[in-house]
From TrEMBL, chain A:
GO CC annotations, alphabetized: plasma membrane
One Pfam family recorded for the sequence: CbiM
Subcellular location: Cell membrane
Domain of life of the organism encoding this protein: Bacteria
Protein name: Cobalamin biosynthesis protein CbiM
PANTHER family cross-referenced by the UniProt entry: METAL TRANSPORT PROTEIN HI_1621-RELATED
UniProtKB/TrEMBL annotation, chain B:
Transmembrane domains' residue ranges: 42-61, 68-88, 108-128, 235-255
Subcellular location, record wording: Cell membrane
Official protein name in the record: Cobalt ABC transporter permease
Source domain of life: Bacteria
CDD domains: EcfT
NCBIfam families found in the cross-reference section: ECF_T_CbiQ
UniProtKB/TrEMBL annotation, chains C, D:
Biological role stated in the UniProt entry: Probably part of an ABC transporter complex. Responsible for energy coupling to the transport system. Part of an ABC transporter complex. Responsible for energy coupling to the transport system.
Gene Ontology cellular component terms for the protein in this record: ATP-binding cassette (ABC) transporter complex
Organism lineage string: Bacteria, Bacillati, Actinomycetota, Actinomycetes, Micromonosporales
SMART domains the UniProt entry points to: AAA (SM00382)
Domain of life: Bacteria
UniProt KW keywords: ATP-binding, Cell membrane, Membrane, Nucleotide-binding, Translocase, Transport
Organism: Micromonospora haikouensis
Name of the protein in its database record: ABC transporter ATP-binding protein
GO aspect biological process, one term: cobalt ion transport
Amino acid sequence: METLAMHISNGIVNGPVAAVFAAFALAVLTLCVLRGRRDLDDRLAPMAGLVAAFIFAVQMLNFPIFTAGVSGHLLGGALAALLVGPWVGALCVAVVLVVQALVFGDGGVAMLGLNVTNMAVLGTAAAYLLIALLLRVLPRTPAGLAVTAFVSALVSVVVASQGFVLQYWLGGTTDLGGNLAGLAGTMAGVHLLIGIGEGLITATTVVTVAKVRPDLVYALRALRPAAPAPVVPVAGGAR
Amino acid sequence: MGAGHAHVLYREATSPVHRLPPEVKIAAMVLFTLAVVATPRTAFWAFGGYALLVAAVAALARVGPGWLLSRAAIELPFVLFAVALPFLGAGERVEVAGLALSVDGLLGGWNIVAKGTLGVLASLLLAATTTTRDLIVGLDRLRCPQIVTQIATFMLRYLDVLVGEARRMRVARVSRGDDPRFLWQLRGFAAGVGALFLRAFERGERVYLAMLSRGYSGRMPAVWQGAGAASAGQWLVGATVPLVAAGIAATAVALT
Amino acid sequence: MIGDVQNPAPPSLDVRGVRYAYPDGHVALHGVDLTVARGGRVALLGPNGAGKTTLVLHLNGILTAAEGSVSVGGLTVSRDRDTLAEIRRRVGIVFQDPDDQLFLPTVAEDVAFGPANLGLRGAELAARVDEALAAVGMGEHRDRAPHHLSFGQRRRVAVATVLAMHPEILVLDEPSSNLDPAARRELAEILRGLPVTLLMVTHDLPYALELCDRSVILDGGRIVADADTRELLADRELLAAHRLELPYGFTP
Amino acid sequence: MIGDVQNPAPPSLDVRGVRYAYPDGHVALHGVDLTVARGGRVALLGPNGAGKTTLVLHLNGILTAAEGSVSVGGLTVSRDRDTLAEIRRRVGIVFQDPDDQLFLPTVAEDVAFGPANLGLRGAELAARVDEALAAVGMGEHRDRAPHHLSFGQRRRVAVATVLAMHPEILVLDEPSSNLDPAARRELAEILRGLPVTLLMVTHDLPYALELCDRSVILDGGRIVADADTRELLADRELLAAHRLELPYGFTP
Ligand SMILES: Nc1ncnc2c1ncn2[C@@H]1O[C@H](COP(=O)(O)OP(=O)(O)OP(=O)(O)O)[C@@H](O)[C@H]1O
Ligand SMILES: Nc1ncnc2c1ncn2[C@@H]1O[C@H](COP(=O)(O)OP(=O)(O)OP(=O)(O)O)[C@@H](O)[C@H]1O
Ligand SMILES: [Mg+2]
Ligand SMILES: [Mg+2]
């Protein structure tokens, strides 16, 4: 059983494919910057920082799965999408990846485009689409929010892992032949387990925040206009 | 709570590498890595050249080999992946010590280990010689959009807030008779995480508002930008590493 | 103050009918009116949970009133960035919790943060920092990390961060708490010497008398008294109705 | 105290030669000796940064002395889990910063946390919580989030969390700061009525006189005076040497 982590390091995927994905990631992030500027107010700025810090911290906790040295970590795309929205959310995850690549050597700098595509773009996008769908159909209760958070986190992790499979298929430096399907299966299986952990953490975190400070949950503000946020623009500064 | 400008990997020292403006170091490190990745995997001598280059910069920066190698362990999962490749790879096989290994897999494994390690070492050298604040200043000078540097600034600061609030919560618990060995032994890891998140947010929000009260407008004041942007001379000095690497890479491409 | 033709200078602080509810629905201010003339020195008294801190946070637009308005030297607090920046330049707030105020890696940098945001540089900036740190007696700790200081030391640095900005209007939320008695007196001496408009929240009534000629009492989110400090402190019944008491053995 | 054959009960607190340096190398305590007999009431005075909070954090093993030893009712503070648990059961500490004390989602849960860890359940637990909250006048806020209270309200809840544990030894770090004057007096009344050993850090000298018959002065990490509170407060020179002063108009 091989060991997989989500941060692709240098040399796993060939240069041209990495370059194509870097261009793709850059284009998407540019869009996020343009759209995110509108979202980032006095409430979202500290939240974006905290979400990034939180993801950074939990990504540092690599945890072993199975007995055979397979390790994985949380990705955070769903948490980011729920709390700060898809645009700023993708930026948060991307910032984490950039800083990790630059100063921790976690994920190769040359592979940054691939990592950003998988975790920041695919992961966040998949999560947000599901969130948008589920919040509309599920009841407006903490349980509904918890299910939304759990499912979107789980799915986003699996989707992100399949991004790696796609990239490896396109430009893996070693031809795995028939083992590619095996790689896809292993990645999906491992990340299903990671996704359950990620789903639990995302759900409890978001439900805790929503209970005390519903005004802080972007998804609830943006997708449930029926429950208007308080008129105050900057919330809860006083202690 | 503090903005911990010296992260865990920073090595306090004064060296020519430490003094180089951050934007130069970031650009050099990124270009170096790109050159390494672009090198054909069979040009073994080229990787030796890169290793010498890394060693030279490490010596200049007064970073010891022991420190570098122990910190490079972050790469371990991918090294294991690389070790598995010779078994998984398709195509022609060779016999090594009684095992039938894929030639393509062996080369692929080597490719990952060599390029991955060089990339990790390069970023560790950047980390060892650059404070997080300088890193952000560097990104800012490289025209990174302000929203990104702002998120990065807050992220680095909130890491301290998270750690600080986690410490406070632990002190609060143990002094009232609780006995958790780890944060996640609280009544469920997740519940503790949710509470910690909220606490850290509210603390950070108040700090942010207090910063606004003192005139913060999304960007750290210009005095923070250290000694000023890099001069042409500094850019030239910094360019030597990626230039040498590019030379090696070009030769390697031409030869294979 | 309305139609005050004699004195065309606008009041330093003008709070009108401010109502505020926290996001959790808790209403902290039920229509507060307060005017402080330029150079005025006012103590804001009241029991715990009265809404003093909440009111303070309205004075530079950190919280925005649900109803009513706040203006600072004639400038109305709004969401406009430039107006807010100007208001925050004029009003310096020392927060009740020093941990909310300090965030940079060293004391000196933290004190420099505000003036640097005002555009000061080089020697001028350094002089501001030195002066402010000397005023609170923390000069020797300038290179230490603020979160490695004692609570009282952090409070002093928090005061210095605001003094260094030379604000026109100084708002202090419980500045004397956790200070040792000498530091308390030294702070009073500094405050007395500053040519600013002063609004000071405090539970320490003798301190209020020492520094402010006028006092207002806030209780339950409403201003319930506004008078000369000496007179107000002499009204035991009024004080008692709002959980205020003079310390034993003290007569104003 | 050594060889005290008349009174075989060990002192409640026995601190011997405690030296402590923070991880950044700053030495906060340079050999502190302090003994408090069972039922003793001692005020711990001293300027900002003297090391008072650091000393307090040694009393239940949150910090561990580099040299010297601390014992509580004869039990020496060590790293052993069971000993630590027993010591933390005996010693209740109210921290200087209420944010170091409160961490649960509601006030009532936070107050119940300590007694629940002592094994209390059901009606008995509820009674403890009600009693403690009533003592600090926060009963009506029992279902609110502690971090949504005013600073003074949080301080009161922090006191309640410790009162609810019925500790044998009560250590309070600046309990009266940020309390309104009535709450301050009410707290003094509660403390006077409790049958405990009391160690109180304070900058409020009249408050120390009101509650403690003995006072020690800590300065620069060393105990520099230890005497009857009234005598100590009468020694103006000693006080002044350690940045302590009596408030204007107060005579002990
Ligand atoms: N973040 C918050 N969310 C909800 N309610 C809050 C928040 N902060 C304060 N409150 C409530 O608003 C009211 C006013 O609080 P405020 O902090 O203004 O009181 P204060 O007069 O400053 O008290 P103190 O003297 O204790 O500092 C209180 O009832 C308090 O519980
Ligand atoms: N976490 C820390 N790291 C390093 N030094 C610290 C830390 N906390 C406190 N100190 C230093 O240790 C000394 C004693 O601090 P302590 O908090 O015990 O003072 P204190 O007597 O409680 O003061 P105050 O009256 O201001 O609360 C001070 O010089 C302080 O700067
Ligand atoms: Mg207050
Ligand atoms: Mg202290």
